[in-house]
Amino acid sequence: MMMKLDWSQVRWEEVWQASKDTLTMLGASLLFTIILGLLLGVILFLTSKRQLLEQPIVYMLLSLVVNVLRSVPFIILMILIMPLTKALTGTTLGVQGSIPPLVVAAAPFFARLVETSLREVDRGIIEAAQAMGASRWDIVRRVLLLEARPGLLAGITITAVTLVSYTAMSGVIGGGGLGDLALRYGYQRFQTSVMIVTVALLIILVQLLQMAGDHLVRRFSRK
Length: 223
Hints:
The protein is mainly alpha-helical and 223 residues long. Helices cover 78% and strands 0% of the residues. The protein has a single domain, classed as MetI-like fold. Helix 1 packs parallel to helix 5, helix 1 crosses helix 9 and helix 2 crosses helix 5. The longest helix has 35 residues. The protein starts with 11 loop residues before the first helix and ends with a helix.
C-alpha cells in the first residue's frame, strides 16, 4: 500500500528561506575553500620532492595536517571546532556558525585536488619557463595555474558538490538550510513530503553545479 503524502505540510516560505540559507552557506564556504585550498595545494606541490621549493619537512607537516583533517568525519569536526567557530563568528548556530567548519573540512580536500592537478602539468613546460628566466611567482601564476586550469575547475566542481552534502549535515547541530529543514520536519515530525521536497532541491542543486562545472572544464580544456 502506497503512503499518502500530505503536501499541505510543506511550508513553502520556509523552504525558500532554507534554500537561500543553503546557497549562502555554499557560496561563502566555497569562496574561502578555494582561496585557502588553492594556497595550501600550491604550497604542497612546490615543497614536494623535485619541485621549485623542495622542503621535505614542510611538505611532511602540511601533508600530515591535511590528512588528519580529511580523516575526521564532518559531523565530529563541527563539534570539535565549535570554540574556533564561536571565536570567529560569535555563534555556532545558523548560517554563520556553519561556514567555518565547512571551510575547515573542505579546504584540505580541495588542496589535495589542487596538488594532484599541478602534478599533471608537463614538467618540460616548467623547465622551459625556468630556462627563459621566469621567476618562481611567474611560473606558478602563468604556467602551473594556467596549464592546470581544467583540472582545477574539475576540482572546484567536486568540492562544491561535496559542500552541498556538508551543508545538509550541518543541520544536525542547527546549521540551518535545507538539511536543518529536513531534520526538523521530515525526520523529527515524520513529514515525508517535506523530506521529499528538500531532497529534490538538493539533487537539483548538485546537478546544476555538476553541469556548470563540466561546461567550464570543456571550455577551458585544450582541443
